[in-house]
TrEMBL record:
NCBIfam families for this protein: ftsY (TIGR00064)
Enzyme class: hydrolase
Protein's UniProt name: Signal recognition particle receptor FtsY
Residue stretches spanning the membrane: none
Catalytic reaction list: GTP + H2O = GDP + phosphate + H(+)
Keyword set, alphabetical order: Cell membrane, Cytoplasm, GTP-binding, Hydrolase, Membrane, Nucleotide-binding, Receptor
Residues the record lists as binding GTP: 123-130, 205-209, 269-272
Length: 318
């Protein structure tokens, strides 16, 4: 299959193109200024390109990898013109992203499991965690799946209320307890309820406090242990939600959470309102964790299954 074979429908692709417009416009404005008046990709151009990538929130380590790859091509091909830089960058970033196993999912499917498929959602407050859970519930329900939500963020009253609103809006079950309840207890009740109802998917919210690593680790470990009393393999996916508009701060959050628990997937939100879309490339590369979903708008259907082919294609679309 060709790397750039189109596999999104037209409407989804247009939403993705629009959602990445600010990131793309900012990136190519900077790139244009970097190569203005220059015809050959030389050391000066590569230095400027390095600045462009870092300022586009691709991250230092990933930027170095991309520059190294382009330097190898310059050494091999002897002469590369700046007019070719767009296509070279596209190829090298696509190659870098192909090294992370994203799976083949192009829609909201879930693996077959013995009992409900459990996704534990982690991330700090304000990144769009609750909204992501609500939109995921909507997408799974659209697929004919029975969904149960667990309001495990018991430290913030608004978190439970917001999740309750989403549950009613989407029309799915929610399990909740009083404010200040033990999150592990909520997780236990949620899984018991999901099993009893023969549910397909469980989406469990967790507290969004980025307290010290030891406390975070202990809390998430306890939730996992309690869930495994009901379903031995739960959670099947630990999804970290990151706000794409925070740029480098998203890297720091990813570092904290991956140190505290085994994160198996990422959801990057709010990409439509930012010029920092390059963060998706950097985080994916640095942490070698697949980006599962991206938020490219406020609508119910604007949470998309991330596809590296279409992302790179939209980012470099002229």
């Amino acid at each position: 299959m060709s790397f750039f074979k189109k596999i999104f429908n037209k409407e989804k692709k247009e939403t993705l193109d629009k959602g990445l417009e600010k990131s793309k416009s900012s990136f190519f404005d900077k790139l244009g200024k970097a190569v203005a008046g220059k015809s050959k990709v030389d050391e000066d151009v590569l230095d400027d390109l390095e600045d462009v990538l870092i300022s586009s929130d691709v991250g230092v380590a990933t930027t170095v990898k991309i520059i190294d790859r382009i330097e190898e091509r310059v050494a091999r091909d002897k002469y590369l013109g700046t007019s070719e830089l767009n296509s070279i960058l596209r190829e090298e970033i696509a190659g870098l992203m192909s090294e992370v196993n994203y799976g083949d999912a192009t829609d909201f499917t879930i693996p077959s499991t013995d009992g409900p498929y459990v996704i534990m959602i982690v991330g700090v407050n304000g990144v769009g965690k609750t909204t992501t859970i609500g939109k995921l519930a909507h997408q799974f329900k659209q697929k004919g799946k029975k969904v149960v939500l667990g309001a495990g963020d018991t430290f913030r009253a608004a978190a439970v209320d917001q999740l309750d609103i989403w549950a009613n809006r989407v029309g799915v079950e929610i399990v909740k307890q009083a404010m200040g309840s033990d999150p592990a207890s909520v997780a236990f009740d949620t899984l018991q309820s999901a099993v009893a109802q023969n549910a397909d998917v469980v989406l469990l919210d967790t507290a969004g406090r980025l307290h010290n690593k030891v406390n975070l680790m202990n809390e998430l470990s306890k939730i996992k242990r309690v869930m495994q009393k009901v379903l031995p393999n739960a959670p099947h996916d630990v999804m970290l939600v990151l706000d794409g508009s925070t740029g480098q701060n998203a890297f720091e959050q990813a570092k904290q959470f991956t140190a505290a628990t085994e994160v198996t997937s990422l959801a990057v939100t709010k990409l439509d309102g930012t010029a920092k879309g390059g963060v998706v490339i950097g985080i994916s590369d640095q942490f070698q964790i697949p980006v599962r979903y991206i938020g490219v708008g406020e609508g119910m259907d604007d949470l998309q299954v991330f596809n590296k082919v279409e992302f790179v294609d939209s980012f470099f679309k002229q």
